[in-house]
Amino acid sequence: MFTITNGIILKGHNLVPTKENIVVDDGKIIEMGKDTLEGKIIDVDGAIVCPSFINGHIHIGDSIIKDEGYGLSLSEMVKPPNGVKHRALADASDDELISAMADSMWDMVNSGTTHFIDYREGGIRGVKLLKKASEGIPIKPIILGRDDSFYGEDPDLRQVRIAIRKLLKVADGIAPSGFGEITDDVAGLIVEECSKQNKISSIHVAESESNQIESIEKFSKSEIEKGVSNNFSQLVHLTNPKNNDLELVSNSSSNVVVCPRANATLNVGVCRLNEMLAMGIKPLLGTDNVMLNSPNMLRELEFTLKLMSVYYKDYLSPLKLLQMATTNIGCHDINNIVQKTPINEGNCAEFVIFKSFSKNPYLNICNRSETKNILYIINKRCIV
Ligand SMILES: [Zn+2]
After folding, report:
1. pLDDT tens figures, 157-171
2. Does pTM surpass 0.90?
3. Listed residues: CB within 5 A of ion ligand 1
4. What is the DSSP letter of 372?
């Protein structure tokens, strides 16, 4: 048991700065209060106590090919089955993949992340490799699998259903790459089987303008319309919305993830964060492919803060931005699986203590903090 004293706590879902002590026992916040003191005392001297980060979208498997293919187009880089990434994954040994994935997980742990939602390639084998790589690392992977039977113009739907069911025995959900690679029937099966088991169905939508144009030409629907009408529980990117796409999303129960650094690396556009927030959409932030970006949420936060300022010639709320990395898991189904809670009495003890530099605690983290400024990471699995 220990008590954190003298911290500025970003409390609850709304990250309200509060001066209280936090008593932690066996991975739980058992008490919060101004005078409460139990067990070992950890005086953090005015530091900021922030919920640990969730990386809402990552492909940790391509940790083996950092920066390879830089300068190529989105589809040349990552489109299955022949993109640079998929050829590299097919050629890699299990040991190489496991060791590269473990390194990336430690990068995440050390920069304050306790949960990440991964798009895992390689079917059941791929899911098992990530589970093996995560053994002994204090982080929670939420693993979304996929299977090669999903692809092609005329897939065997019986096989697809069997593959989904087998995957869901080991994975937290299913994530095909995008609507360009699968038929509507396959999309429907994925959502149906995931929702039966309260698991996550997730898909990339509107990452590039050309994805959107192809979708409209082929189906008379944008990728975002397809994602919403198929009831995917999570939609990733939404970088190039059309017409009333964002309104459709705001009226749906889908969770949204945006990945500004990955979009910039692949020069596919800037996600419309200010519009999303104004419409009540509460996105998560993700670092996307490790081949493109480091999986460090602090770097994503600062980049996003500045990018939106340039793009909109207006300020993005640093509070709302920090919520995108910590407490924005609005979707009930996703929260059930992710199980990440804000800082409140009775919740899991999962928070990061940052050295304080400025009077604005949100900017302190989003604008100034680096990994080296983390004083403690309190994780229900251990103290790092
Ligand atoms: Zn992605």
Report:
1. 999 999 999 999 999
2. yes
3. 288
4. G
